[in-house]
Amino acid sequence: MRTTGHDQIDAYDPLRTGAVLEVGDTDTVTADVVIVGSGMGGSTLAWELRDRDLDVLVVERGRFLPREPENSQAAEMFLAGRYKTAEPWFDGKTGESFQPGVYYWVGGNTKFYGGSLPRFRVSDFEETQHYDGISPKWPFCYDDLEPFYAEAERLYQVHGIDGEDPTEPPRSSPYPLPPLPHEPVIERFATSLRAQGLHPFHTPNAMNLTTQEQRRQATAADGTPSQTDHKSEAENRALRPALESEKVRLLTEAKVTRLLTDPSGSRIVAAEAAFRGRTLRIVANQFVVSAGAVNSAALLLRSANEQNPDGLGNSSGLLGRNYMVHNSTFFMGLNPFRKNATAWQKTLGINDWYVAGPANEYPLGNLQMLGKLQAAHVKSARPWAPMWALGMVTDRSLDIYLTTEDLPTPTNRVRIDGDRIIVDWTPNNVAPHRELVRRVSSAVRKAGYPIILTERMGIATNSHMCGTAVAGTDPAASVLDPTCRSHDIGNLWVVDGSFFPSSAALNPALTIAANALRVAPEIAAAAR
């Protein structure tokens, strides 16, 4: 790492092998490649660049998330808001503020995810007719990404088994690790689903849980941090190993506020970051933005200048537009006379209605189990209910997450107003989601859960956000080229979910990681 002034490298917690850059009284730091954000895209890219003889600096606005007993306490997370770090965003429709489901810690949102790492299906990369419109073709196909899916699965230690899910795409290698077995309640549910003619499968998952005690420790880990390294996420599987290289460094508590260009407006020369009460200038050859689909778009919009009056890389006018999340529902099947003692519940999925076919004219979406819900998880949805009553419900519930594809539309977008982030989002493709809920309700009732409770997720449930800087071959119809480089700014790249031309109906994390591995050689070549 090349720096000026009195920069130094300090040792830190041995659980996080490597070193954090400690900036002294200098106002300038330099590198070959700067990566803004340490989530799935940024950390995976840093890992892939670690041996390419480049000085790589990962810049993260947050700090390391502490390891403490509260990590696994749902009440601390969902009632006390212990780990909330994001500023409020604003609903463009109502003008009201909301607390987004994003977190500013080293490792990003992966610190809180449930380790669900599916591959997108072949059809997700192709133009697909949906109920409410077209899901567009990507500028590369599944086969182009497949080797990198395999590499990402090895990096993140994904558990799974091929052959159970009829929509599973072709694979060049088996899953790195065997699937997590169902516990008795979930196995009974799977048996009922198979008897109904469905095809439940063991979901691809990055939770390394080999004992029942480890499962009990991880009960709340779908939505909360993990006190252990049983959850494979961006910090422990990618960033920490990357920091073992002398060529990769991490700067924490530094919020990049603006990217500065040369006089031509076609090349970035520096990033400005708010760092512990002062402004730090970060100079580099290549700049990679991976701050999440909303924050990445906001950063590029805030970086507008005379040559780029509508934001950096926005000659198409599409920067911030085509914002997508998923149509999603939290679903509970309840049997008042049967307790659910499952510790780690997130082992089963169904994709029988994922693609169009004889049973459904249009794609409906995906079913996956949630981590076992507790009273604290559902209190915000039912604030009038006492905790003891919510506990009686969650002790007896089967907990499911349903997702349907949200289609890209230019009016769903991210805007800025000074320091405020404004999100305009009107759900579309809703009818297929309602049909998915109806079919799952029928299947769950037949499985012995007569009471169905659902909660449709709104604008604040945005952990699957994507699409604000879409990739494509036509500069007039996309923000990035197929390698995720800006059409307009030669040394600007975006490697989070912003580049997605469509949202699919599956968790995006593995696709973000695989794509970062795919474009890393292009970034390395440009940096040289």
Structure summarized in a few sentences:
This protein is α/β, with parallel strands linked by helices. Helix content is 22%, strand content 20%. A six-stranded antiparallel beta sheet has the order 10-17-18-19-16-22, with helices on one face.
Explain what this protein looks like in three dimensions.
With 528 residues, the chain is of the alpha/beta class. Helix content is 22%, strand content 20%. The strands form 6 sheets. Strands 10-17-18-19-16-22 form a 6-stranded antiparallel β-sheet, covered by helices on one side. The chain has a 5-stranded parallel β-sheet with strand order 11-5-4-15-23, covered by helices on one side. A 4-stranded mixed β-sheet has the order 3-14-13-12. The chain is globular.
Poorly predicted ranges:
1-12, 14-18
The secondary structure category is alpha/beta
Q: Terminal Cα separation, in Å?
A: 15 Å
Largest sheet, strands/sense/barrel: 6 strands, antiparallel
- Share in helix: 10-25%
